[in-house]
Design goal:
This protein is an alpha/beta fold and 283 residues long. The chain folds into 2 domains: 58 residues; 210 residues, Uncharacterised protein PF01937, DUF89, domain 3 (Rossmann fold), CATH 3.40.50.10880. The protein has 13 helices and 7 strands. Strands 1-7-6-5-2-3-4 form a 7-stranded mixed β-sheet, with helices on both faces. Strand 2, helix 8 and strand 3 form a beta-alpha-beta unit. Helix 1 runs antiparallel to helix 2, helix 4 packs parallel to helix 8 and helix 5 runs antiparallel to helix 8. The radius of gyration is 18 Å and the shape is globular.
Length: 283
Protein backbone atom coordinates (compact mmCIF):
# COMPACT_ATOMS: atom_id res chain seq x y z
CA UNK A 1 0.00 0.00 0.00
CA UNK A 2 1.35 3.43 -0.94
CA UNK A 3 1.45 6.56 1.18
CA UNK A 4 -1.36 9.05 0.58
CA UNK A 5 -1.42 12.81 1.12
CA UNK A 6 -3.72 12.35 4.12
CA UNK A 7 -0.93 10.34 5.79
CA UNK A 8 1.34 13.39 6.07
CA UNK A 9 -0.59 15.22 8.83
CA UNK A 10 -0.78 11.92 10.71
CA UNK A 11 3.02 11.59 10.57
CA UNK A 12 3.40 15.05 12.10
CA UNK A 13 0.80 14.41 14.83
CA UNK A 14 2.34 11.08 15.74
CA UNK A 15 5.84 12.55 15.87
CA UNK A 16 4.85 15.40 18.20
CA UNK A 17 2.91 13.06 20.52
CA UNK A 18 5.82 10.64 20.69
CA UNK A 19 8.33 13.42 21.34
CA UNK A 20 6.18 14.80 24.16
CA UNK A 21 5.89 11.34 25.63
CA UNK A 22 9.66 10.95 25.60
CA UNK A 23 10.68 14.36 26.96
CA UNK A 24 9.34 17.71 28.19
CA UNK A 25 12.09 19.59 26.33
CA UNK A 26 10.32 21.83 23.80
CA UNK A 27 13.55 22.34 21.85
CA UNK A 28 13.56 18.63 21.13
CA UNK A 29 9.87 18.76 20.19
CA UNK A 30 10.70 21.46 17.65
CA UNK A 31 13.70 19.55 16.30
CA UNK A 32 11.57 16.43 15.86
CA UNK A 33 8.85 18.33 13.98
CA UNK A 34 11.34 20.11 11.72
CA UNK A 35 13.06 16.82 10.97
CA UNK A 36 9.79 15.05 10.20
CA UNK A 37 8.57 17.83 7.93
CA UNK A 38 11.87 17.69 6.06
CA UNK A 39 11.64 13.90 5.67
CA UNK A 40 7.99 14.06 4.62
CA UNK A 41 8.87 16.49 1.84
CA UNK A 42 11.40 14.07 0.40
CA UNK A 43 9.82 10.64 0.95
CA UNK A 44 8.69 8.64 -2.11
CA UNK A 45 4.90 8.36 -2.00
CA UNK A 46 5.01 4.85 -3.46
CA UNK A 47 6.44 3.56 -0.18
CA UNK A 48 4.11 2.32 2.56
CA UNK A 49 3.45 4.59 5.57
CA UNK A 50 5.33 2.36 8.07
CA UNK A 51 8.58 3.02 6.18
CA UNK A 52 8.19 6.69 7.05
CA UNK A 53 7.15 5.61 10.53
CA UNK A 54 10.51 3.96 11.06
CA UNK A 55 12.36 7.14 10.01
CA UNK A 56 10.25 9.27 12.33
CA UNK A 57 10.76 7.09 15.37
CA UNK A 58 14.47 6.59 14.76
CA UNK A 59 14.78 10.38 14.78
CA UNK A 60 12.79 10.64 18.01
CA UNK A 61 14.87 7.98 19.73
CA UNK A 62 18.07 9.68 18.61
CA UNK A 63 17.08 13.21 19.65
CA UNK A 64 15.58 12.08 22.96
CA UNK A 65 18.41 9.64 23.67
CA UNK A 66 15.78 7.05 24.59
CA UNK A 67 15.79 3.60 22.96
CA UNK A 68 12.13 3.00 23.86
CA UNK A 69 10.06 6.14 24.61
CA UNK A 70 6.89 4.05 24.90
CA UNK A 71 8.31 1.65 27.51
CA UNK A 72 6.07 2.76 30.38
CA UNK A 73 2.98 2.85 28.15
CA UNK A 74 3.64 -0.68 26.95
CA UNK A 75 4.00 -2.03 30.46
CA UNK A 76 0.78 -0.30 31.51
CA UNK A 77 -1.30 -1.70 28.66
CA UNK A 78 0.18 -5.18 28.95
CA UNK A 79 -0.95 -5.20 32.57
CA UNK A 80 -4.38 -3.83 31.66
CA UNK A 81 -4.88 -6.52 29.01
CA UNK A 82 -3.69 -9.28 31.33
CA UNK A 83 -6.26 -8.15 33.89
CA UNK A 84 -8.98 -8.66 31.25
CA UNK A 85 -7.62 -11.97 29.96
CA UNK A 86 -9.43 -14.35 32.38
CA UNK A 87 -12.89 -12.98 31.63
CA UNK A 88 -12.18 -12.84 27.90
CA UNK A 89 -10.98 -16.44 27.91
CA UNK A 90 -14.17 -17.44 29.73
CA UNK A 91 -16.20 -15.72 26.98
CA UNK A 92 -14.37 -17.78 24.36
CA UNK A 93 -14.84 -21.05 26.21
CA UNK A 94 -18.54 -20.41 26.78
CA UNK A 95 -19.25 -19.23 23.21
CA UNK A 96 -21.28 -21.25 20.72
CA UNK A 97 -18.49 -20.50 18.21
CA UNK A 98 -15.21 -20.18 20.14
CA UNK A 99 -13.13 -19.46 17.03
CA UNK A 100 -15.30 -16.55 15.94
CA UNK A 101 -15.33 -15.10 19.45
CA UNK A 102 -11.55 -15.40 19.67
CA UNK A 103 -11.18 -13.66 16.28
CA UNK A 104 -13.43 -10.83 17.44
CA UNK A 105 -11.51 -10.37 20.69
CA UNK A 106 -8.15 -10.49 18.89
CA UNK A 107 -9.35 -7.70 16.59
CA UNK A 108 -10.76 -5.77 19.56
CA UNK A 109 -7.24 -5.70 21.02
CA UNK A 110 -6.02 -3.87 17.93
CA UNK A 111 -7.44 -0.67 19.43
CA UNK A 112 -4.27 -0.46 21.56
CA UNK A 113 -2.40 1.50 18.91
CA UNK A 114 -0.60 4.70 19.88
CA UNK A 115 0.37 5.29 16.26
CA UNK A 116 -3.30 5.77 15.34
CA UNK A 117 -4.90 6.84 18.64
CA UNK A 118 -3.44 9.10 21.29
CA UNK A 119 -6.22 9.20 23.90
CA UNK A 120 -6.19 5.56 24.91
CA UNK A 121 -7.08 4.31 28.36
CA UNK A 122 -8.41 1.12 29.92
CA UNK A 123 -12.02 2.20 29.30
CA UNK A 124 -11.34 2.32 25.56
CA UNK A 125 -10.17 -1.31 25.64
CA UNK A 126 -13.25 -2.47 27.53
CA UNK A 127 -15.52 -0.59 25.11
CA UNK A 128 -13.71 -2.15 22.15
CA UNK A 129 -14.30 -5.63 23.59
CA UNK A 130 -17.99 -5.00 24.12
CA UNK A 131 -18.41 -3.58 20.63
CA UNK A 132 -16.43 -6.38 18.98
CA UNK A 133 -18.60 -9.16 20.36
CA UNK A 134 -21.69 -7.91 18.51
CA UNK A 135 -20.37 -5.89 15.57
CA UNK A 136 -20.60 -7.14 12.01
CA UNK A 137 -17.30 -8.39 10.64
CA UNK A 138 -16.08 -6.83 7.40
CA UNK A 139 -14.82 -9.84 5.48
CA UNK A 140 -15.36 -13.56 5.25
CA UNK A 141 -14.77 -15.63 8.37
CA UNK A 142 -15.61 -18.74 6.34
CA UNK A 143 -12.55 -18.29 4.15
CA UNK A 144 -10.43 -18.10 7.28
CA UNK A 145 -11.90 -21.37 8.55
CA UNK A 146 -11.17 -23.04 5.22
CA UNK A 147 -7.59 -21.75 5.25
CA UNK A 148 -7.09 -23.10 8.76
CA UNK A 149 -8.20 -26.57 7.64
CA UNK A 150 -5.35 -26.61 5.12
CA UNK A 151 -2.72 -25.01 7.35
CA UNK A 152 -0.21 -27.05 9.30
CA UNK A 153 2.31 -24.24 9.85
CA UNK A 154 1.00 -20.81 10.82
CA UNK A 155 3.03 -17.65 11.20
CA UNK A 156 1.23 -15.09 13.37
CA UNK A 157 2.54 -11.54 12.97
CA UNK A 158 1.88 -9.52 16.11
CA UNK A 159 1.24 -5.80 16.21
CA UNK A 160 0.99 -3.96 19.53
CA UNK A 161 1.63 -4.33 23.24
CA UNK A 162 -1.49 -5.30 25.19
CA UNK A 163 -3.03 -6.53 21.96
CA UNK A 164 -0.71 -9.52 22.21
CA UNK A 165 -2.74 -10.76 25.20
CA UNK A 166 -5.85 -10.90 23.03
CA UNK A 167 -3.82 -12.66 20.33
CA UNK A 168 -3.29 -15.43 22.87
CA UNK A 169 -7.02 -16.09 22.87
CA UNK A 170 -7.00 -16.76 19.13
CA UNK A 171 -3.76 -18.73 19.12
CA UNK A 172 -5.19 -21.02 21.82
CA UNK A 173 -7.93 -21.87 19.32
CA UNK A 174 -5.38 -22.57 16.58
CA UNK A 175 -3.43 -25.14 18.58
CA UNK A 176 -2.30 -27.92 18.20
CA UNK A 177 -1.30 -26.60 14.79
CA UNK A 178 2.30 -25.41 14.54
CA UNK A 179 2.04 -21.70 15.36
CA UNK A 180 4.95 -19.26 15.60
CA UNK A 181 4.41 -15.74 16.89
CA UNK A 182 6.46 -12.84 15.47
CA UNK A 183 7.46 -9.59 17.19
CA UNK A 184 9.39 -6.56 15.95
CA UNK A 185 13.17 -6.72 16.02
CA UNK A 186 13.53 -3.49 18.01
CA UNK A 187 11.21 -1.06 19.82
CA UNK A 188 9.12 1.25 17.64
CA UNK A 189 6.00 3.12 18.84
CA UNK A 190 4.11 0.65 21.09
CA UNK A 191 4.65 -2.28 18.75
CA UNK A 192 5.15 -5.66 20.32
CA UNK A 193 8.69 -6.84 21.11
CA UNK A 194 10.16 -9.91 22.79
CA UNK A 195 9.80 -8.17 26.16
CA UNK A 196 6.05 -7.88 25.60
CA UNK A 197 5.87 -11.51 24.48
CA UNK A 198 7.47 -12.58 27.74
CA UNK A 199 5.29 -10.30 29.87
CA UNK A 200 2.09 -11.47 28.17
CA UNK A 201 2.86 -15.17 28.54
CA UNK A 202 3.10 -15.71 24.79
CA UNK A 203 6.58 -17.24 25.05
CA UNK A 204 5.12 -19.99 27.25
CA UNK A 205 2.39 -20.76 24.72
CA UNK A 206 4.16 -20.93 21.35
CA UNK A 207 7.62 -20.26 19.87
CA UNK A 208 8.29 -16.53 19.45
CA UNK A 209 10.76 -15.01 16.98
CA UNK A 210 11.54 -11.44 15.95
CA UNK A 211 11.60 -10.15 12.37
CA UNK A 212 14.87 -8.24 12.74
CA UNK A 213 13.31 -4.89 11.81
CA UNK A 214 12.15 -1.71 13.54
CA UNK A 215 9.56 -0.83 10.89
CA UNK A 216 6.05 -0.67 12.44
CA UNK A 217 4.87 -3.24 9.90
CA UNK A 218 6.47 -6.03 7.88
CA UNK A 219 8.56 -4.98 4.88
CA UNK A 220 9.99 -8.31 3.82
CA UNK A 221 13.07 -6.84 2.14
CA UNK A 222 13.98 -5.14 5.44
CA UNK A 223 13.49 -8.24 7.62
CA UNK A 224 16.06 -10.79 8.76
CA UNK A 225 16.76 -13.70 6.38
CA UNK A 226 15.69 -16.23 9.01
CA UNK A 227 12.31 -14.54 9.32
CA UNK A 228 11.84 -14.38 5.55
CA UNK A 229 12.52 -18.13 5.37
CA UNK A 230 9.85 -18.81 8.00
CA UNK A 231 7.45 -16.48 6.16
CA UNK A 232 7.88 -18.35 2.87
CA UNK A 233 7.55 -21.75 4.53
CA UNK A 234 4.27 -20.94 6.33
CA UNK A 235 1.05 -22.48 5.05
CA UNK A 236 -0.82 -19.45 6.38
CA UNK A 237 0.24 -16.04 7.67
CA UNK A 238 -2.05 -14.20 10.10
CA UNK A 239 -1.10 -10.51 10.04
CA UNK A 240 -2.44 -8.34 12.85
CA UNK A 241 -2.90 -4.60 12.64
CA UNK A 242 -2.93 -1.77 10.15
CA UNK A 243 0.88 -1.57 9.85
CA UNK A 244 1.08 -5.17 8.68
CA UNK A 245 -1.77 -4.53 6.24
CA UNK A 246 -0.07 -1.43 4.84
CA UNK A 247 3.17 -3.31 4.22
CA UNK A 248 1.90 -6.74 3.14
CA UNK A 249 -1.38 -6.10 1.29
CA UNK A 250 0.37 -6.26 -2.09
CA UNK A 251 2.31 -9.46 -1.34
CA UNK A 252 1.32 -12.69 -3.08
CA UNK A 253 1.19 -15.00 -0.07
CA UNK A 254 -1.63 -16.77 1.81
CA UNK A 255 -2.21 -13.95 4.33
CA UNK A 256 -5.22 -13.24 6.53
CA UNK A 257 -5.33 -9.67 7.81
CA UNK A 258 -7.07 -8.98 11.12
CA UNK A 259 -7.40 -5.41 12.32
CA UNK A 260 -9.69 -2.59 13.34
CA UNK A 261 -9.97 0.07 10.61
CA UNK A 262 -8.97 3.06 12.72
CA UNK A 263 -7.53 5.07 9.83
CA UNK A 264 -9.82 6.69 7.21
CA UNK A 265 -7.19 6.14 4.51
CA UNK A 266 -7.06 2.39 5.15
CA UNK A 267 -10.83 2.18 5.49
CA UNK A 268 -11.23 3.77 2.04
CA UNK A 269 -8.52 1.50 0.64
CA UNK A 270 -10.43 -1.66 1.56
CA UNK A 271 -13.91 -0.18 1.08
CA UNK A 272 -15.31 -0.13 4.60
CA UNK A 273 -16.32 2.43 7.22
CA UNK A 274 -13.87 3.63 9.85
CA UNK A 275 -14.17 1.58 13.03
CA UNK A 276 -15.09 -1.71 11.37
CA UNK A 277 -13.61 -5.06 12.42
CA UNK A 278 -11.77 -6.39 9.39
CA UNK A 279 -10.91 -9.95 8.41
CA UNK A 280 -9.51 -10.02 4.90
CA UNK A 281 -8.00 -12.89 2.91
CA UNK A 282 -6.43 -15.19 2.17
CA UNK A 283 -6.37 -14.56 -1.59
Amino acid sequence: MQTYLDCIPCFVRQALEAARMATSDEKIHEAVLRGVLNMAGRMPMDQSPPVMGRRIHRLIRELCDDADPYRAVKERFNRAALALYPQCRARVEEADDPLETAVRLAIAGNVIDFGALSDLDEKVISASITQALDAELFGDLGRFREALQRAGRILYLGDNCGEIVFDRLLIEQLLPREVTFVVRGRPVINDVTMTDAEMSGMTKLVPVIDNGSDIPGTVLAECAPQFRDRFRQADLVIAKGQGNYETLSDEDYPIVFLFKAKCPVIARHIGCETGRLVIQGPS
